[in-house]
Amino acid sequence: MTVPQTTLDALTTAAAAAADKLGTHIVAFDVAERLGLTDAFLIASGASERQVNAIVDGVEEALLKDEQLKPLRREGRSDGHWVLLDYGHFVVHVQHREDREFYALDRLWKDTPAIDLGLPEESTRPDAATQDDGASASHAS
Question: Global pTM?
């Protein structure tokens, strides 16, 4: 795994914040070797636009408070379907469950190493409405 410890710590903080806001299907992938622009992706789902925005707020607040990190770039906040927070060494994707199913980032990155976030199993499981060919099961370690 090529992800630095500081990035792992920040991912763990972000994942816990997403779980605190009842985010689901929270997974992370080490994309450093395949992408080169960033070390890791964290992906979480929300059941509604309001929940997506609440998850994003929680992640931003926790990373600022606990890791002193602010996103370099934020996209998608206004529609609440897919919000991207770019922290440089890692990117947080918070998606409405329908967008998560449609864009299938899990399938796109399923061949990259999963990152153990130390979350309870219920936080890493897909929503009942989300199907992803079982990719999350292998990444929910």
Answer: 0.86
